[in-house]
Amino acid sequence: FSKPFFVEESTHSLSLCVQNSQKISKSPRFHLQMSTAKPSSSWMAQFKPGERVEVSCNDRGFRGSWYAGTVVRREAKNTNHYLVEYDQLYADESGEKLLQETVDWVQLRPPPPPPEKKVQFKVEDEVEAFYSDGWWEGAIIAEHSGGKFAVFLRGFDEEIVLEEKDLRLPVQWVRGNWEPRLEQVQREKENSNFSKEVMKFTQGMQVEVLIDEDGLKGAWFAATIIEPSGEDKYLIEYKTLRNDDDTEFLREVIAACNIRPCPPEIIVVDGFKVWDAVDAYYNEGWWVGVIAKVLINSNYEVSFIEYDEKTTFNLADLRPHQEWLNGKWVVP
């Protein structure tokens, strides 16, 4: 958790950041870049006077933090700016007058919905933690007695101990919809009953196979189902990997939990942006990565977090990342 990831400077300034600047480290470790796409009219209509929202502060040392508030009004009919009043941030030192501030629409989102079932937090979980009047990105690094957890907060660059009630799973508000973060999808996949309710594959079906070996961890390779081979196992033939003699395509018996259908095609119209989760075609397989930099001529620098490496790819060799979760495709 101590290694820094991509950091992009921001020129936005919020008075709440100025007020709390003495409390927080000036070297944030991680943040999510928010979409700058123009919102649809239906999305804009959701932010009405009196509506509950969360407001992001994207200044240095505050990235990834969210503060609860209420929309007071939209500043003008044809603008994307709103006046909000914070729940726990004050305009005066006496703490009698709540802070009101005009913010851009990209800094607003509704309060995240509660989880459908109780979350069992564990070490290495990505979380949002309520601390210093806001929700901050972090990761659980230790579990303590009494339902408490040690959490590393990236914005503060320090470890604190919090109760379970002060933690929640991170989600993203994308174009008017709540979408799970990539690490949450992977967490749900690990905790699901997928291994007990594996999909049945038929002969000749085109699939992708996960090879969970050193140097190939997390990569998916195109294959064809040849025939069943024991309980919840299949003999498959790879479409790109060949045998040691290079005389024919490699065949292997693979557990059904490491096989999935080929993901549906998603047409990318406007290209990718920084922080998009993608699959990159590399060494005959699809590898999960994150867009680190947008280059010229439809080229992108992709970071493979699993291997701490970056490589340049053309748009033609990238696809939006999708997860096969409990029998359906999920786009984190």
Automatic annotation (TrEMBL):
Domain Agenet: 45-116, 119-175, 199-267, 270-326
Domain of life: Eukaryota
InterPro entries per record: Agenet-like_dom, Agenet_dom_plant
UniProt protein name: Agenet domain-containing protein
